[in-house]
Fold this protein.
Amino acid sequence: MNNRSFSSRLSWRIIGIVSIVFFASFIVNWLVSQYVITNETRSGGLMLALSLLLVAVVGLIIVYFMCRREIRRMTRPVTELSVSALNMAKGNFKANLPEIASKDEMLRLRDSFVYLQNSISDYIGQLKTTRSDNERMESELNVARTIQMGMLNTDFPPQLHAMLKPAKEVGGDLYDFIRKGDVLHIAVGDVSGKGVPASLVMAITRAMLHFVATLDLPLNESVSRINNSVADSNSNDMFVTLFIARINLKTLRMDYCNAGHNPPVIISPDGEPRFLPVKSNLAAGLLEHFPYEDEHIDLEPGTRIVAYTDGVTEAENDSLELYGEDRLMEDIKQLKADMDEETVVKDIYQSVKSFTARHPQSDDITIMSLKV
């Protein structure tokens, strides 16, 4: 054996026990060895592996619960915000929101919920105020409608009937008739625009019609006075188309003046309808002191006069097609001579409604029928 150190391993079996001897030479004449039983080595390694596995499992369990606790802590505000959002969805817009200590996305999310709560509360407050105002206005409009409809003369003589259907709560159409002995005054008019302003102009016009009817003036002078009155009290540039006539029921002479209105339909006793020829006068209220011209015609006994507003001829269906004068004339041709005037008015109105079907009424509708 020389001076170099060496190492080696020997293994042998002694009485069925496998052993290992490690030995090594470090200096001359010195030898170090280690005797190890194989089974003990394996047993110790197994115990070490089990111990490490146990430590790993326990460590994972500890980490799991720590992570779970931290995640719950971090997500608790989200859960509480979701509960608040559910309460808000049920109508509780003052639901408490969780306090957020951190200055991160969660705080910004909570601030957004606070802004949403305040915005919704303000909107609901405004909505309640608006609804209250609308209900009050609707109530006032219903009263105005009752008053306006009450102004219309419904005490019809046997030879006359009329109807007015406003497009809104109140409207600007008008009809009237005044009988003084054997003289019958009739009028049909249409105020530009709709709603409350039109109804006020309509009331002024109707009052003037009753006033001038008592004066027995020529019709052009009567319309001129109505025109000046409407123009003088008109601050919204509104105007009134008006047809006014005075009929002597004995002589059947009809004096009339048309102020920009749709010409009435004259139906002779033989059933042939035609439009009454009218002069081109301005609508009332457009120009003060306009020189209106009146006209006259001698009627035959049994002649029927149908006056209307443009709510009839300009009624639209779903295809935006107009009812029109041609269709009106065709429907009037179907009327029977022995029909009473109420039936005539209702038949024409039903024809218009059948044409428009479910399309909303866009303008006031007025129809008057008179048979002399």
